[in-house]
Design a protein that fits this description.
The protein is built from 17 helices and 16 strands. It has 537 residues and is an alpha/beta fold. It has three domains: 275 residues, P-loop containing nucleotide triphosphate hydrolases (Rossmann fold), CATH 3.40.50; 125 residues; 40 residues, no CATH class. The strands form three sheets. Strands 2-1-13-12-9-3-8-7-4-6-5 form an eleven-stranded mixed β-sheet. It has a three-stranded antiparallel β-sheet with strand order 14-15-16. Helix 5 packs across helix 6 and helix 5 crosses helix 9. The N and C termini lie far apart (60 Å).
């Protein structure tokens, strides 16, 4: 058609504009499908010349990059420390993570720990049961502390660095650090007794323990263990007898302390809790590097032992943090911030009455001590299944006091309990319920696909609308996020170490011995992922 020739205009369309998809009707060229435009991403330095044609997003861009907003596709950045210190979006640097197993609770927490490590924040995993965080801490050059039957000891009477710190401090700072160490040791001994008995010690026994610890510190040179505390109770010194109110009768004192003595004997004699707490600490915690307490060797059937070890790790870790901050306040050490991860919270809370108070005392001062914290559990029902009503209310307070609540897929039955603490719209509830649906079956491969809610989370802060985000892993993160590594085995049943190449392919690079945690060479340099099923490529 020449320039002078013009295509005739339909009179019915004269003076009108086409719709976003074209002209409707026959011959109008209306499109039922619009292909998404190409998308490029760049930093503000690279694309600053495009302003004002670049548009911002409603999702916060402060903190660790978590993933893409499910609704808008924009990048979502989030972590409790950055949102507390830099963005001022929350008043408490803590978060509570809820979600059914297998949907990625540990994955999003690892992503935050990895990003915060880049900001100079030390990740502290105070009890890793699966383990989910060991590979991450090793990749960061951190310290792995193994605990379990025959695999390590943790002395609950060990003041850690408190004794050395007290010598470097003066005045009220020294008194405060000594009082904190004393109170933490007494709390931990009482907590172990609570787990042994499934109920807390009475007021008189608490007073006896308090005085016995003071006598022990005066008598003992070095670091005492529980056996030494038991000996003080059995020796019946006058100061302990006075607080026991034995009225001058040694026989009455023996009757008063009989139950306490029996509980202490159980802790040092290899009872239900074994000998983990009866000897000196094998691997003291270092405060200048990331740390993980690997307790994965404790069997899931030993619920009391798991709860006791987790609580001991929490107490030990928070005590070390308190010492580090006291030295920093005095100008003797550089200021460090820590990201503390408390996984499987429900295991400790269910171990016995009164343990909610112990956990509550450990976790209340995180804001004043420069500590960000992540508490992880499955559902609200885990927290509300405690026997005592006062324990249930305090456990619910863990979620209420958290600066942010991150929810994965949850069943419909959880919504009433959850919305009492975290206001949610019906649309947000439906989203969480949809994410917990089981995986579909792929007829092409004959295998189950990934669950629809894996990696999807809703970030809630107070009554604000939640931000739905999908956590996508990079190739570098896939290896340290393999929580099913025990299923990756060769023909001989030994676990294989698999690395992900930049192109996304996976290759076996080593083999773990069932008896030795050290990494062995792979059984065959050409062995690849097919070794998962014992079939050669």
């Amino acid at each position: 058609m020449s320039k002078k020739e013009k295509k005739p205009v339909d009179p019915s369309r004269r003076g009108k504009r086409p719709m976003p998809r074209g002209w409707p009707g026959p011959g109008g060229g209306y499109s039922t499908y619009l292909q998404a435009p190409a998308e490029w991403r760049g930093t503000t330095v690279q694309v600053c010349g495009m302003w004002p044609f670049g548009a911002g997003t409603g999702s916060p861009m402060v903190g660790v990059p978590i993933g893409r907003n499910i609704l808008s596709g924009a990048t979502m950045c989030c972590d409790p420390i950055s949102w507390f210190m830099r963005a001022k979006l929350i008043s408490n640097p803590s978060m509570f993570v809820l979600g059914k197993p297998g949907l990625g609770k540990s994955t999003i927490t690892r992503r935050m720990a990895l990003g915060l490590a880049g900001y100079g924040v030390m990740p502290l995993v105070l009890g890793d049961l699966k383990p989910d965080y060991k590979d991450l801490i090793e990749a960061l050059g951190g310290q792995v502390i193994q605990l379990g039957r025959g695999r390590g000891h943790l002395n609950v009477l060990d003041p850690g660095e408190s004794r050395e710190a007290a010598l470097r401090l003066t005045g009220k700072a020294r008194e405060a650090i000594q009082a904190d160490a004393h109170g933490r040791r007494q709390t931990m001994v009482s907590a172990l007794i609570s787990i042994m008995r499934s109920q807390p010690p009475n007021d008189r026994e608490e007073t006896i323990l308090d005085e016995a610890l003071k006598v022990l510190d005066e008598r003992f040179q070095g670091t005492p263990v529980l056996r030494d505390l038991l000996q003080v109770v059995q020796d019946a010194p006058d100061r302990v007898r006075n607080v026991a109110l034995d009225r001058g009768s040694l026989d009455r004192y023996r009757q008063i302390t009989e139950g306490l003595e029996a509980s202490l004997i159980g802790l040092v004699g290899g009872g239900r809790l074994g000998e983990i707490f009866s000897e000196q600490t094998d691997n003291p915690m270092q405060m200048d590097r990331p740390v993980v307490f690997d307790v994965s060797n404790i069997d899931d059937s030993e619920t009391n032992l798991q709860a006791a070890v987790l609580l001991a790790c929490w107490s030990y870790g928070f005590g070390a943090v308190a010492v580090a901050q006291a030295l920093a306040d005095a100008g003797l050490e550089p200021r460090r911030h820590y990201f503390v991860i408390l996984d499987e919270l429900w295991r400790v809370l269910r171990a016995g009455r009164g343990l909610v108070d112990r956990v509550d005392a450990l976790t209340r001062l995180n804001r004043q001590r420069g500590v960000g914290m992540a508490m992880i559990s499955h559902t609200m029902s885990d927290l509300l299944a405690l026997e005592a009503p006062e324990d249930r209310m305090k456990a619910k307070g863990f979620v209420e006091r958290s600066g942010m609540v991150i929810c994965g897929g949850l069943p419909r039955a959880e919504m009433d309990n959850l919305t009492e603490v975290v206001p949610m719209s019906q649309e947000e509830q439906n989203m969480l319920i949809g994410w917990q649906d089981p995986p579909a079956w792929d007829p092409a491969t004959g295998q189950e696909t990934a669950p629809p809610g894996r990696g999807n989370f809703l970030v809630k802060v107070g009554g604000r609308p939640g931000i739905p985000v999908h956590v996508g892993l990079t190739s570098v993160e896939r290896e340290i996020n393999d929580t099913n590594k025990l299923w990756t085995t060769g023909d001989d049943g030994k676990p294989l170490k698999v690395e992900v190449a930049p192109d996304g392919t996976e290759e076996v690079v080593g083999q773990y011995s069932l008896d030795d945690p050290a990494l062995l060479p792979p059984p065959d340099p050409t062995t690849r992922l097919a070794a998962r099923t014992g079939v050669d490529e």
